[in-house]
Amino acid sequence: MRSTIILGLMLLWAGSAFGQKYPERRDIRSGNKLYEKGDYTEAEVAYRRALEKASESYEGNFNLADALYKQKRYDEAAQMNARLAADSAYAEYAAAAYFNQGNALFQQRKLEEALEAYKNCMRLDPNDQQAKFNYAYTKKLLEKDQQNQQNNQDNQQNNNQNNQQNQDQNKDQNDNQQNQDKNQQDQNKDQNKDQNKDQNDQNKNNDQDNQNSQNPQDQQNDGSGDQNRDQQDQNQQPQPQNGGMSREEAERMLDAVQGSEDNTKKKVDAQKVRAVGASGKNW
Questions:
Q1: 126 phi, psi to nearest 5 deg
Q2: Are 102 and 114 in contact (CB under 8 A)?
Q3: Max CA separation in the chain (angstroms)
Q4: Lower CB count within 10 Å: N or C terminus of the chain?
């Protein structure tokens, strides 16, 4: 920071008449002593007391902006120096105000605005080496920041592209997996359907076999009818009583039956003979 006003105005004459014309001078001198000691907070208080007595004092405002900068209140200092630089009544001090404004803006990392302030300083004072150095240094930092910003944008763009590619790839993988799952489900469904059909057919055959085993006569429809009829005929013939009969009784019964058949045959033959004799014809 520059303290041109502090040094310049302190060379003005002193005296009771000067004190009456410039009542703020005592407070400004007090503030300058505190500033030189590094007590910037108390220096600010003294400068503000001076401005209460003469608010338009260029020296009081310039030195107050300097004290604010030392307290790292850069935004307030930049605004005060901008107003001082624009004051046409003190144009000879505008270069110093622009320089101090550039420093306050630089501390806030407002590099583009700081560059503009240093430019204004060099326009008014082309031989100011400090302004030239600060301008070159600030410009270099600004270009570096711009390059970093461009790199960050490129990296962000690449990351976005990679993320999009990953999303597309994941989507394709998910789609493929879903298709595989669907095909597997369809395959399992068909397989279960075939298994269920085979099981139903097998159950139907088992039911038929069980039904046939319960009705054996139904199993012999092809060629077994005669056997069934024979069995029925046998069942219709007289069956022996529960008590049965002896062998002798059975033989006597057979003899009686045979005798009855012989008698019947003889009667039939006798009738045939009589019939033939009567008509003379053999029917």
A1: -60, -20
A2: yes
A3: 207
A4: C
What letter represents residue 159's amino acid?
Answer: N
Find the Cα–Cα–Cα–Cα dihedral 173, 174, 177, 178, rounded to 10°: -150
Q: Which of 176, 85, 87 is nearest to 131 (CA)?
A: 85
Tell me: the pLDDT tens digits for 82-138? 999 999 999 999 999 999 999 999 999 999 999 999 999 999 999 999 999 999 999
Name residue, tokens 């790199």.
151
Is the per-residue pLDDT at 205 higher than 50? yes
Cα–Cα dist 164/172, whole Å: 12
DSSP tally for the chain: helices H, then strands E: 11, 0
pLDDT band at 172 (very low <50, low <70, confident <90, very high): confident
What is each CA distance from 212 to 15, 216, 217, 231, in whole angstroms?
A: 145, 6, 8, 19
Residue 80, pLDDT > 60, answer: yes
State if pTM tops 0.70.
no
Q: Residue 62: which of 134, 1, 126, 107 has the closest Cα?
A: 1
Q: What is the DSSP letter of 88?
A: G
In angstroms and rounded to an integer, the radius of gyration of the C-alpha atoms of the chain is 68
- CA–CA separation, 77 and 69 (whole Å): 6
